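TOKENISED FOLD:
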Amino acid sequence: MIRRGKARGQIQDDADEDILIDLVSGAYFYYLTFTPEKLSTEDWLKKTMKILATGVKT
């Protein structure tokens, strides 16, 4: 998914794929473990990707 985003120009070429994966998976683990209010996985991912894209989007 990250490579496709890079190929389409949606993610910077120099963005580290492993770090992006760690950021999302770590944030999701934290959310599941410590947040009492639960969103669906899809809703959580949409919100997270919107926030993350602001920093890595070209």
Notes: The mean pLDDT is 89. The two ends are 16 Å apart (CA to CA). The chain has one domain: 2-56. The chain is about 70% helix and 0% strand.
